[in-house]
Amino acid sequence: MRAKSFPIAILAVILSCTTFAGKAQDSTMLRKHPPKERIIDKLFTGGNLGAQFGTVTFIDVSPLLGYKVTDKIGVGIGATYQYYHYHDKFYDFETNVYGGRVFGRYLFTDYLFGHVEYEYLNLETFDFKRRRVDVESLLAGGGYIQRVSDNVSIVAMLLYNFTESVYTPYSNPIIRVGVNVGF
Fold first, then answer.
1. What is the sign, positive or negative, of the torsion defined by CA atoms of 147, 151, 155, 159?
2. pLDDT tens, 30-44?
C-alpha cells in the first residue's frame, strides 16, 4: 500500500507546484499589463464662479471639461457667461458676455503648470452706439494646483493676454482661481 501511495503523493506535489507556478505567472502578467484606464478616469471638470456686488455688479460662471492626455498634459474646452451691470447717479449700463475657450496645460511638477488658452467672447461695447463685438484672446501663463483629495484640487493661475484690445473685458495680468474635479 505504501508503494502505491508514494507515486500519488509525488503527483499531488507536482500538481500543486504547477498550480502555484501558474498563479505566480498570472500575477506577474498582471503587473506587466495593468488593466486599461477608462476614458472617464482621464476626464476632469471644474471652472470658475465669481460675483461682485455694488456700483458694479459682476457675475461669472465659467465651467470647463478637460482630458488628461498623459500624466503631464491636459487639454480641454470651457464655456463663459458673465453678467455685468454698472449703475451710479449718472450712468446705467447692463450687458451679458458669453463665449468659450480651448486650453492646454503642462505639469512641470505635481504643483506647478503652464497654461495656454484661446478664448472667444461676444460682448456689448461701451462705444457711443451700443453694439455687440467678437473678442478673441490668446492667453498664456502658469498656475499652481493644491490637491484637496485624489479627485479635487484648487487651481490658481496668472495669465497674460497677448492680444489685448480696447474691447477686452479685463486687463493684464489676469488672475483666476477655481476648482477642478476628476471623475
1. positive
2. 556 666 778 888 888
